[in-house]
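A reminder from the course coordinator: this example appears on the midterm review sheet, so study it carefully.

Given structure:
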């Protein structure tokens, strides 16, 4: 979903402090940001998503660019907040949610998003993504969820394009192996 031709007007209104314009932006981009954060299995992705939008509101006056650049800008903020949240969790020695706990939360959701997470979990994709390194997971989620080109992913992750290409290649190869192994095991066991 995109705002489309009215994006420049919505952005100008948001910069001027119009709460309705912020709502349009939030409704359009929050599923993408939340999906990215959930893909990293944060303990509280909704809270981190809120932090992303608070930061965006504070800095929206400094943003210049089109809608695609705006999405990249928000995902850059999301990536940084995800790294911060991961570090906080590690320092606090909290147990992050397990994939089973995430699946249980998805079962409780009645939205289309919850149903989509359930399907991904049933296919083993949630587990497979969870087994990627943090950098691989970020690169794959930004490529798949946000449909961003390598150049923009490199900017968001503050990595060279060649490193992002390698992360994407290794991440997708790992996902492919894991999903193939899961498919093979379900054929063997008839599940």
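Designed residues:
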């Amino acid at each position: 979903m995109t705002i489309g031709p009215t994006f420049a007007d919505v952005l100008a209104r948001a910069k001027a402090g119009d709460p309705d314009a912020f709502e349009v932006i939030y409704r359009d981009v929050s599923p993408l940001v939340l999906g990215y954060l959930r893909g990293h299995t944060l303990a509280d992705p909704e809270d981190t998503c809120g932090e992303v939008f608070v930061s965006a509101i504070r800095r929206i006056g400094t943003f210049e660019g089109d809608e695609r650049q705006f999405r990249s800008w928000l995902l850059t903020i999301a990536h940084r907040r995800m790294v911060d949240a991961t570090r906080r969790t590690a320092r606090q020695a909290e147990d992050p949610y397990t994939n089973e706990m995430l699946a249980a939360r998805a079962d409780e959701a009645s939205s289309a998003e919850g149903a989509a997470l359930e399907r991904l979990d049933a296919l083993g994709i949630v587990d497979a993504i969870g087994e990627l390194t943090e950098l691989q997971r970020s690169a794959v989620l930004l490529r798949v969820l946000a449909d961003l080109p390598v150049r923009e992913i490199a900017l968001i992750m503050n990595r060279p394009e060649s490193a992002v290409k390698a992360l994407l290649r290794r991440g997708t190869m790992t996902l492919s192996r894991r999903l193939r192994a899961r498919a093979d095991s379900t054929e063997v066991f008839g599940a």
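The domain at 1-97 is CATH 1.10.1740.10 (Rna Polymerase Sigma Factor; Chain: A). The mean pLDDT is 81.
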